[in-house]
Write a sequence for this structure.
């Protein structure tokens, strides 16, 4: 499901999907919601990683990989709520 959502996210960019470059490890999600919030977060981060990999490959000719788990994806997406704006 995560890989499919990520591929749908980058469909309009013209970038071919590099699905093998991103792995998402299973873990129990931190966010207990009726919606599958952790999976959606992971799919957004997967799409971002695929696009970054595409840019990197265009610049250097080499591929790279990304790996994370559902808990890390959940934390990454909600970390903006823990930021402060200083004067």
């Amino acid at each position: 499901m995560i890989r499919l959502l990520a591929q749908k996210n980058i469909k309009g960019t013209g970038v071919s999907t590099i699905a093998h470059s991103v792995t998402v490890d299973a873990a129990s999600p931190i966010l207990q919601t009726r919606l599958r919030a952790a999976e959606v977060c992971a799919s957004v981060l997967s799409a971002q990683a695929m696009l970054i990999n595409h840019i990197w490959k265009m610049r250097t000719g080499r591929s790279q990989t990304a790996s994370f788990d559902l808990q890390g994806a959940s934390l990454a997406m909600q970390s903006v709520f823990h930021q402060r704006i200083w004067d």
Q: What stands out?
A: Residues 2-13+28-78 form one domain. The helical segments are 2-9, 37-60, 70-78.
